[in-house]
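To: structure desk
From: M.T.
Subject: fold request, one chain
Message: Could you run this one when you get a chance? Sequence is below, nothing fancy, just the single chain.
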Amino acid sequence: MRTDSRRPRIVIICGPTGIGKTAAAIRLAQRIGGQIVGADSMQVYRYMDIGTAKPTPQEQAAVPHHMIDVVDPDTSFDAVRYAVLAADCIDRLRQAASPAVVAGGTGLYIKALVYGLFAARRPDPQIRQRLARRAETQGVAGLHAELRRRDPQSAARIHLNDRFRIIRALETLETTGRSLSELQRRHGFAQKRYTTFKIGLEIDRDVLYARINQRVEAMVAEGLVAEVQSLLDRGYHADLKPMQAIGYRHIVEYLSRKTAWDETVALIKRDTRRYAKRQFTWFKSDPEIVWSTPEDVVRLWPQIASFLERPPRHADR
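Reply: Done. Structure tokens follow.
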């Protein structure tokens, strides 16, 4: 792990939703005197707190958090922008001699931060507007079907209702003549910018799924329906990218009387479990990750301190 002293060093805590990344990151940041840089594609949006399991005010007061509440839900945001903004945060922390603990479950964001992304062309407003009009008239599913024909690899990664990413992928095809998956493959994520100590959190799959089910129930009790209704009342359309996320799109359908309440809750639980499985698949493919249960991260603290070339702040408790 000491192969390149010129690169800034960061600690990464990753894993599936509901496994306890926030609590583990807070304990670690307190131990090493660091701050947390979020790596969650939904927690960047303002007004979306309950459905994204955003760190509570108390958790954010315990350790400074960055990359949370960055943009409004109707503002375009992707892995490229995340990588730029998160890198700025890490640079500021480095200047302040405060280690960065990158914590989150969005694998592409973490990969984009560490390795960079290919330099995509600037969006073409005319092409984007034309595709947006087609989405309105033909439906998002029609655009996804076209993407499936022209770039099946990207289509397989993009949800059928993810209007923003579908349009971006088709726009890339039209502006570059190459598919998004081809451009990403050519880039190869080869420009490593950080030396990393990656910690992956894992627990028994059945235990995780039970936690996810309980978490969904807690979100509902905390006011998820009211949060979604508030977003709609603010004028954030149901077709917006973040409004198509798990939980939000389900509650929109419930409020539109397309699904019954019991079915809505069951679908949120099911789709969250499926998402967690996809996250496991993504992170398990990374051979650099050191795996641990959330409770056992404490055993890695001596290695982390050595990696950062600084002593732990507190003795083990």
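Reply (cont.): The longest helix spans residues 261-284. Let me know if you need anything else for the meeting.
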